[in-house]
């Protein structure tokens, strides 16, 4: 059985999850390959120099012809991008994707060898209007957000926020995607969270698919593990007695990730002195004399990343919309509890007084109350129990075997 995992990039939440799935499948005997614009692994398990996505500079004469063509006969993708650019000053969003690209993905040599093609986050590499017409191989969609069953946007709130400015284009792309997916003869849909599965079902995009399943992402428990908190803090210059919060700040996803609610909550935190470690490229600023904020920036080394989870008392995950964030799984694997709102995949796995604290009301005031509640009961949370929960639900073997069954059914 040859299966190819396709992601625009090997980086970011979706790319990391797809690459982890690739490694998990190989551990259970599936010939998995991984294809992305920046990193490709063949069916032999070896990284390849993949020239498929490289820019090929056209000749001077061809560039002249292309310029004429763009001026007088622009492609659909060019017309869409022009319309988006003309309205960009009106739009407020985390991310948008156009379902057109210059790549003829069905011609990729690894895809042509595959028995099953597994799409992940594929903005910028998949053209809906051409790929499915030229493909006969069974397809699996692993959703990491809502974009595969939306028009331009990746989450519901962005769609609602911008609808009045770009509704016609958004609807036309929605219809294009739905029509393209409707011609898939052998397909399956997999989501890491039940929340996203329910959202996908309401779209009616996938009613004709063979299977619609929830299979959680997996985590490498050899890297993300319980460590000696006292020793880790000593190495990082953090006092043994500090109350340490950890947060990941993504500058492009600040609204959806709830950074404004976090700041609002932290400014209300009066009776507890705490330290906030901030991973990522985003910035967190809160006016509170009891709060010390330590920006860590982007941390690329997974061992170092794991050490910050181990150093923290609790991980703060105030997302308003989210699927099954890798950061939650990583925190659990390190034995660190999570505070989150009752939304998305967090609602399914943050269990009060066991794996963390789950908040009903999406407000900064509710968030600060949850932090105070956690602080008062900090000794009730046991790292070994949290990690045990993670091993039970997010192991490589569990994920790989579940995917393997879906692939077998599609091939049959």
Structure, briefly:
This protein has 15 helices and 14 strands.
Note down, in words, how this protein is organized.
By secondary structure, this protein is α/β, with parallel strands linked by helices. The protein folds into two domains: 2-218 and 395-411, Rossmann fold, CATH 3.40.50; 229-393, Rossmann fold (3-Layer(aba) Sandwich). It has helices spanning 12-27, 60-72, 76-87, 109-113, 128-131, 156-182, 194-203, 229-236, 259-267, 302-311, 326-333, 344-349, 364-376, 383-393, 396-411; strands spanning 2-6, 31-35, 40-41, 47-48, 116-119, 139-142, 187-191, 211-214, 244-248, 274-279, 291-297, 314-317, 338-341, 356-359. β5, α5 (128-131) and β6 form a beta-alpha-beta unit. α1 (12-27) packs across α15. The chain is globular and about 65 Å long. The protein starts with a strand and ends with a helix. This is Glycosyltransferase. It comes from Flavivirga algicola.
List the helices and strands and how they pair.
Blueprint: E1 2-6, H1 12-27, E2 31-35, E3 40-41, E4 47-48, H2 60-72, H3 76-87, H4 109-113, E5 116-119, H5 128-131, E6 139-142, H6 156-182, E7 187-191, H7 194-203, E8 211-214, H8 229-236, E9 244-248, H9 259-267, E10 274-279, E11 291-297, H10 302-311, E12 314-317, H11 326-333, E13 338-341, H12 344-349, E14 356-359, H13 364-376, H14 383-393, H15 396-411
Parallel strand pairs: 1-2, 1-5, 5-6, 6-7, 7-8, 9-10, 9-12, 10-11, 12-13, 13-14
Antiparallel strand pairs: 2-3, 3-4
């Amino acid at each position: 059985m040859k299966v190819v995992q396709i992601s625009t990039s090997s980086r970011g939440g979706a790319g990391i999850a797809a690459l982890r799935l690739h490694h998990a499948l190989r551990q259970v005997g599936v010939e998995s390959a991984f294809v992305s614009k920046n990193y490709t692994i063949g069916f032999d398990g070896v990284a390849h120099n993949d020239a498929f996505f490289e820019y090929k500079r056209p000749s001077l004469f061809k560039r002249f012809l292309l310029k004429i063509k763009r001026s007088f006969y622009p492609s659909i993708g060019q017309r869409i991008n022009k319309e988006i650019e003309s309205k960009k000053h009106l739009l407020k969003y985390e991310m948008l994707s156009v379902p057109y690209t210059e790549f003829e993905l069905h011609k990729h040599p690894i895809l042509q060898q595959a028995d099953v093609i597994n799409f992940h986050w594929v903005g910028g590499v998949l053209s809906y209007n051409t790929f499915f017409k030229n493909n006969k191989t069974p397809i699996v969609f692993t959703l990491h957000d809502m974009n595969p069953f939306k028009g331009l946007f990746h989450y519901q709130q962005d769609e609602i926020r911008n609808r009045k400015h770009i509704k016609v284009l958004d609807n036309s792309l929605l219809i294009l995607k739905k029509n393209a997916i409707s011609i898939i003869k052998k397909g399956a849909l997999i989501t890491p969270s039940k929340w996203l599965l329910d959202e996908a079902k309401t779209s009616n995009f996938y009613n004709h698919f063979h299977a619609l399943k929830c299979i959680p992402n997996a985590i490498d428990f050899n890297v993300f593990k319980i460590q000696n908190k006292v020793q880790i803090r000593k190495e990082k210059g953090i006092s043994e007695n500090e109350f340490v919060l950890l947060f990941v700040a993504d500058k492009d996803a600040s609204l959806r990730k709830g950074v404004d609610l976090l700041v609002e909550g932290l400014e209300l935190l009066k009776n507890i002195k705490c330290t906030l470690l901030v991973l990522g490229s985003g910035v967190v600023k809160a006016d509170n004399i009891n709060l010390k904020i330590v920006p860590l920036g982007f941390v690329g080394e997974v061992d170092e990343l794991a050490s910050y989870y181990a150093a923290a008392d609790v991980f703060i995950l105030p997302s308003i919309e989210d699927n099954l964030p890798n950061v939650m799984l990583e925190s659990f694997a390190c034995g660190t509890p999570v505070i989150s709102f009752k939304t998305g995949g967090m609602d399914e796995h943050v269990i009060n007084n066991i794996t963390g604290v789950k908040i009903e009301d999406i407000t900064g005031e509710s968030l600060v109350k949850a932090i105070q509640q956690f602080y008062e009961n900090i000794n009730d949370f046991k790292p070994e129990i949290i990690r045990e929960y993670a091993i039970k639900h997010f192991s490589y073997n569990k994920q790989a075997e579940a995917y393997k069954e879906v692939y077998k059914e599609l091939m049959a």
